[in-house]
Amino acid sequence: MVTMIMVLVITCQFLLINSQNHPLDPLNPNEITQIQHIITTSHLASLPHLNFHFVDLDEPDKNDVVVRGGGQTHEIIVELTTGYIVSDHVYEGDGYPPNTFSELLQAARLPFNSSRFKDLVLRRGLNVSEITCFPFTIGWFGESTTRRAVRLSCFYRNGTTNVFARPIEGLSILVDIESMKIHTLVDRNTSPVPGSEGTDFQFSGERPNPIPIPCDEENVKRGFSINGGDVKWKNWRFHIGFNARAGVIISTASIFDGGKNEWRRVMYRGHVSETFVPYMDPTSDWYYRTFLDVGEFGFGRSAVTLVGSMDCPSNAVYVDGHMAGADGLPQEVPKAICIFERYAGDIAWRHTEVGVPGKVITSGEPEVNLVVRMVATVGNYDYILDWEFKQSGAIKVGVGLTGVLEMKATTYTKADQMKENIYGALIADNRIGNNHDHFITYYLDLDIDGNDNSFVKAKLKVERTKTSPRKSYWRVIKETAKTEDKARQRHGVEVEASELLVVNPNKKTKLGNNVGYRVMAGGQPAVSLLADDDYPQIRASYTKYQVWVTAYNKSERWAAGFYADRSTGKDGLAIWSHRNRSIMNKDIVLWYTVGFHHHPSQEDFPVMPTLASGFELRPANFFERNPLLKT
Amino acid sequence: MVTMIMVLVITCQFLLINSQNHPLDPLNPNEITQIQHIITTSHLASLPHLNFHFVDLDEPDKNDVVVRGGGQTHEIIVELTTGYIVSDHVYEGDGYPPNTFSELLQAARLPFNSSRFKDLVLRRGLNVSEITCFPFTIGWFGESTTRRAVRLSCFYRNGTTNVFARPIEGLSILVDIESMKIHTLVDRNTSPVPGSEGTDFQFSGERPNPIPIPCDEENVKRGFSINGGDVKWKNWRFHIGFNARAGVIISTASIFDGGKNEWRRVMYRGHVSETFVPYMDPTSDWYYRTFLDVGEFGFGRSAVTLVGSMDCPSNAVYVDGHMAGADGLPQEVPKAICIFERYAGDIAWRHTEVGVPGKVITSGEPEVNLVVRMVATVGNYDYILDWEFKQSGAIKVGVGLTGVLEMKATTYTKADQMKENIYGALIADNRIGNNHDHFITYYLDLDIDGNDNSFVKAKLKVERTKTSPRKSYWRVIKETAKTEDKARQRHGVEVEASELLVVNPNKKTKLGNNVGYRVMAGGQPAVSLLADDDYPQIRASYTKYQVWVTAYNKSERWAAGFYADRSTGKDGLAIWSHRNRSIMNKDIVLWYTVGFHHHPSQEDFPVMPTLASGFELRPANFFERNPLLKT
């Protein structure tokens, strides 16, 4: 399969974001190497178990570099030009930076040096060389946290490449990451390992029809250019960056206004801020699975190399991603991002007019959009993350969920055998697909036609009338949110129908309307249902609302707090919002959460058909008229 | 533009649904002609003003043919084989069949023979030969209705082809359709006619990039076949029909189950049932605009000839639509439907697995879907109606709104001049885009793996736990709706999170799960906000809920009742549902409403960028496993 795909990729182009030509660009590999050198030749070099957790200058901040060594978190500011460490501060608050992939890998290997582990799996009749263990972050449940730790879940491959399909249920290994030792190892052996039959997801057989877009190169007049991270396409220009935590970062997105003959800013910066994935199983081996994928693992670190003609169409151009590894040295994800023009067969606008005598006038345009895509595979799940730019001025943000479910082994093979609550659904022989949620939260520093913006709720209020044969109608009552508490919103809930807008109160159209953008749900809305006093919910309390607006603060970018691993809810979006700052005519940040409740079904096995949702930012009186019509 | 497009269409194919080879097929032109002959040579021929309103045998019913003559509605059953009229029944209930387009056209021309009209427009300084009048249905507001009537709204073209952009505000003409005479003609002359500048929507200038899908024929190995109305594509087969009221009708849709090696039914029949479009302006010339587009006009009658490479990509195949005209003779809409494979660049499924030592395994498939599309242009608005079939078993129903707003002339040219409620937004010089809703309701006679189905609400219920470090989780409580009242649902409202399913309680997977399909919102949900006692809401009371389920009854297909013009709410979905029949393990019909609240913005002028929403039917334990993976 992989070979076959490579053949189709011959027209692909590879680009490297390698020039530090944009203020919001991440570090290039040279700069990463420089920083590594500065730190490894400083007093910090002597710290035991030195690991680089963040090397990230895409906005100069107190957390330019975060290393851990000697069991402490050091926040370091480095001056690249002089080679000096400007400051070195030990962070003593709650939570930890993400475990590095190097640490996670070491942790996952520990059981294979443990004779107790080998005994236990032998007693189960398993071949130890066919076992894979994955490190899961463990969340926080009210205990005092003094050390970093992960729990390993182990799986039996023997006969399958779908590792997650054969859980060794009841085997639980707590690893102390600081000492890199097994802390506890138990085997409750609650259920035998499910079989391998039917678990493979590898594509077998011939692809039924070759994908014919675009079928020959001369027709591919690519409509966009990439220079460094600067992308220009039709009436859009924006910048793409990449870092270990967020993955793709879109910045300084502006649209050309033909009427005004000028570029107008829409978004200063946008990226995934956090992802909350609580599983709905309170039992011993499952309760802790309440992942904050972005803060605990990182979407950049989890970015995969995209496969041509499968992950992206054959007209895509690829961009590599760079970040620092645990050793501080540059790491590359080849083809981490793809950019392509999307010809989906949609209609951008049309009208047939029969009102002109003797004529039938039909006019319109097909829709051609530009998509920027990455895929983050965090263990079993694959997140497809799209930014889609439309010539109408809209930006559509798409989230697709695919990959493999987290499954629990069970002795059940028939749904009607089950009398107890199984916390999910029987989706394959001896396998429960556990209930869970996904909340993908976006940081959207919109700058609608300038820096200072306001958030407006346009409520649809039903009025009764006695002066008309009609008895009722709705009108729009616009309320500008003065403070952060007025901006929290469960979007899409019809109890109070409203349109949500970010407007520039300082800019009006010629007609006198405030220029703005609307935010619209792109799928069935979902917010977290967990109890407010439940620990995972305390850590991800922002997931109770789809929409938040905060006053811009450069250190407020990660919805569950900067140190998300084992966090206790003392940092993050809800905390900042409760400061209740003024957000009227200010530089404001819109936070939007795309949510999914997932009660699995058999179709999700052995690999899930993509489940898609998202949202759209759509111009609302930003332009004087429909920008698709050239004047 | 039109010429340019025609050049691109050279590879298109045209098909005619002309064989009566499917029990759900509409009449073919020969049969229509036969019926016309039978009726025009019978006693009915002597009726004054004989008009054919429905000639529709796609399900034999008491309403096989509906004609009006002598001010009465005749419901006629015709036996085609013998040429006999089996029965002729005069309908005496509320409401009327839709005015025929021939009647509407006659009505629209009446003012031009009226010296009073000519005087009034001359007094406004308008050139009568540049005026177009459109007939609007007038709804019902509690009065007793004894005659059919429409109100004309007139527009000034002079310098534009965008007829709706220049309303002659305050000019109102009530036409008695029975006598085909003007009943009342008033000119309140509330505002001058807005100018023509910037109103044209015709595409001018060069298309920036030719659309490269699929660009040459040898690459277009079309994956589907059409024989009569029978479509086969990948693992799907279904039938397409067309009638004057619904437009496209999908029937007997079945999917091939590779595991069982059999075709399994998903949907017996699905089509648009009704469309409710209330404007939110209670003033004299606007209050009555509360359209039931399907029942009052007909989506088949409003179907447009699709334009290649604009309305549908160049790999589309076209099908003509047929129906009876007002004279009973066959009418054709050339290229009323297009069918194409959609290569949108999406990913059907994927996974990257790093858990197998020494390997990175990436597998997946791009998504290729089949789309069946029509466009209904009802006056100013264009509805893009898609049925999209996925190889995963999902059916995605898409609704796109584009075309021209209904606009109201105003003296205002600046938003800040306005102190009163204008019932909309100032969207162009001297033009208000009036607030309104669109509710597109689908009739979905699902037959999930057989005739008898049940409707299940899978509620996500939050449970507290004291036996876990966790305090809460949600579990799924499935409730089968026993009767119709238990199936009404405001979908997507998080007050009570739930998944909605249609299951076959008589069929289980090997694992013992009930086979089923889920229905999922595809955009921001919206239900009608009008007061329950308001007349338009009484007529379209079903729009208070997105979801209804009824027991199958062959005469219950049109949500606002069969005779929707001037209906009074005595027929229709809410009435049927209130019979509260059993819907458990029965042949049931799912009704789903896609809603939009539309508070216009300047971008909607002079023509709207498409606003899209929809819903998806997604298999949930219908298959033993992901059907995208061939075993």
TrEMBL record, chains A, B:
<dbReference type="GO" id="GO:0048038">
    <property type="term" value="F:quinone binding"/>
</dbReference>
<feature type="modified residue" description="2',4',5'-topaquinone">
    <location>
        <position position="381"/>
    </location>
</feature>
<feature type="signal peptide">
    <location>
        <begin position="1"/>
        <end position="19"/>
    </location>
</feature>
<feature type="active site" description="Proton acceptor">
    <location>
        <position position="293"/>
    </location>
</feature>
<keyword id="KW-0479">Metal-binding</keyword>
<feature type="domain" description="Copper amine oxidase N3-terminal">
    <location>
        <begin position="97"/>
        <end position="190"/>
    </location>
</feature>
<keyword id="KW-0186">Copper</keyword>
<keyword id="KW-1015">Disulfide bond</keyword>
<dbReference type="Pfam" id="PF01179">
    <property type="entry name" value="Cu_amine_oxid"/>
</dbReference>
<feature type="domain" description="Copper amine oxidase catalytic">
    <location>
        <begin position="223"/>
        <end position="628"/>
    </location>
</feature>
<dbReference type="InterPro" id="IPR049948">
    <property type="entry name" value="Cu_Am_ox_TPQ-bd"/>
</dbReference>
<dbReference type="InterPro" id="IPR000269">
    <property type="entry name" value="Cu_amine_oxidase"/>
</dbReference>
<dbReference type="InterPro" id="IPR036460">
    <property type="entry name" value="Cu_amine_oxidase_C_sf"/>
</dbReference>
<dbReference type="GO" id="GO:0009308">
    <property type="term" value="P:amine metabolic process"/>
</dbReference>
<dbReference type="InterPro" id="IPR015800">
    <property type="entry name" value="Cu_amine_oxidase_N2"/>
</dbReference>
<dbReference type="Pfam" id="PF02728">
    <property type="entry name" value="Cu_amine_oxidN3"/>
</dbReference>
<comment type="similarity">
    <text>Belongs to the copper/topaquinone oxidase family.</text>
</comment>
<protein>
    <recommendedName>
        <fullName>Amine oxidase</fullName>
        <ecNumber>1.4.3.-</ecNumber>
    </recommendedName>
</protein>
<feature type="active site" description="Schiff-base intermediate with substrate; via topaquinone">
    <location>
        <position position="381"/>
    </location>
</feature>
<dbReference type="InterPro" id="IPR016182">
    <property type="entry name" value="Cu_amine_oxidase_N-reg"/>
</dbReference>
<dbReference type="GO" id="GO:0005507">
    <property type="term" value="F:copper ion binding"/>
</dbReference>
<dbReference type="GO" id="GO:0008131">
    <property type="term" value="F:primary methylamine oxidase activity"/>
</dbReference>
<keyword id="KW-0801">TPQ</keyword>
<keyword id="KW-0732">Signal</keyword>
<keyword id="KW-0560">Oxidoreductase</keyword>
<dbReference type="InterPro" id="IPR015802">
    <property type="entry name" value="Cu_amine_oxidase_N3"/>
</dbReference>
<dbReference type="Pfam" id="PF02727">
    <property type="entry name" value="Cu_amine_oxidN2"/>
</dbReference>
<feature type="domain" description="Copper amine oxidase N2-terminal">
    <location>
        <begin position="22"/>
        <end position="65"/>
    </location>
</feature>
<dbReference type="InterPro" id="IPR015798">
    <property type="entry name" value="Cu_amine_oxidase_C"/>
</dbReference>
